[in-house]
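Problem statement: downstream parser choked on a complex file, so we are re-checking the raw output for the glutamine run. The parser issue turned out to be on our end (a line-ending mismatch), but while we're here, posting the original submission so the record is complete.
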Amino acid sequence: MHHSSLKSLSDALTAGDISSVELTGLFLKRINERNAVYNCFVSIDEERSLAQAREADLARAAGRAQALTGIPIAQKDIFCAKGWLTTCGSKMLSNFVSPYDAHVVERFNEAGAVTIGKTNMDEFAMGSSNETSWYGPVRNPWNTDAVPGGSSGGSAAAVAARLAPAATGTDTGGSIRQPAALTGICGLKPTYGVCSRYGMIAFASSLDQAGPMARSAEDMALMMNAMAGYDARDSTSLDRPVEDYTRELATPLKGLRIGLPKEFFADGLQPDVAKAVDEAIRQYRALGCEVVEVTLPNMKLSVPVYYVLAPAEASSNLARFDGVRYGYRTSEYRGLEEMYEKTRAEGFGAEVKRRILIGTYVLSHGYYDAYYIRAQKLRRLIAQDFIAAFDKCDVIMGPTSPSTAFRLGEKAADPLQMYLSDIYTIAVNLAGLPGMSIPCGFDSQGLPVGLQVIGNYFREAQMLQVAHQYQLATDFHLRAPSDINA
Ligand code: GLN
């Protein structure tokens, strides 16, 4: 049962082969047995999950079932969920029980899904390895000495280890796609504004976007049907017609134009990754796609631009954690100022402090024009490169990450090396485009490789079609780490 897709779990529930209470119990049991190895979950609340499952079973019995009714979904711990500890991977929020639901969580609740737990993540979503979490690192189910990627590392590892059938993630610079690639699962970052950011703890608001992490394109489409949609509480949420994200899945790809940017295949790409991606492109040609070369000349600026803009926004967003209203407060202080200082010194980890310092610096008088304004202008150029490329092609493909999963500790002491692991994903966030990663092979150590597919604005349904047609012809998405099968 734990290998089943959302679609087949839904069918099994409809057929009465299993109840949601049984299914939820089965995943809770797996989590209890294995979470100590991977550290995917920050919180589990069996009673709360089982109560939702009982309600789902009643709804189903009353003929009120939707596609996800009764199916357990793990929520990244960046999403506020009523009554749940919501930590964002930080000591700063280690005592914060959310009094309300994020829009995304609300949507899953309305769809009848069961929250199976809250997943571990890099602190405030800052990281690419899940090593910055106050709750300790997550281990990659394909090799427990390796990282699962980040910041949605707990969600990725939970899905890869079959501790949840699917999970939510968020992606500011690659945090859905890169961990999906490193753990051999699928992840989609939608067009900016498609999923509401309400109740999603803010990192860099002009880049943050929620999305699904699952084992197949079809499963991601079902999740998108629940997650996407307008919400007046997020001023950047887009009021667009409701879409059925499954509608294009079955359409063959013949005639689809795939753009390959030469910048994605330059120095620094691990040869095994290049090989698997080439092989995937060959498969797409066999499916009737046409391949064209495109160029993204400003791509090389995306990491430096991101590391001005994202910290600038973070320094402002994280100003609210001051020990006054909620979250951690230092135990001893004389006066308000010392309370602020000690609370923030003790509550934030090193990476978060580094970002706040950089962000405050680039926004300060005298540096604002030189860094922040200039980065905004370059951001526009990066977006224009993509707009020009989409004149020549329907989707862009390349690697998701320059390497497969690296060892725990390998890059933790070197922030610049860590930042470079998002070199292929960050430009997509800067442009506000949708991006996806799907499994496309393995390296010589047996670690998964991810293929990145970038679509034009609002073309998520087409991207899911592109993934689904590939998954009909290949089985990389069905493979599981060897010790998971038991
Ligand atoms: N790794 C990038 C960072 O550390 C992206 C993180 C994310 O997408 N949340 O900022």
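For whoever reads this later: Residues 6-253 form a domain with the Amidase signature (AS) enzymes fold (CATH 3.90.1300.10).
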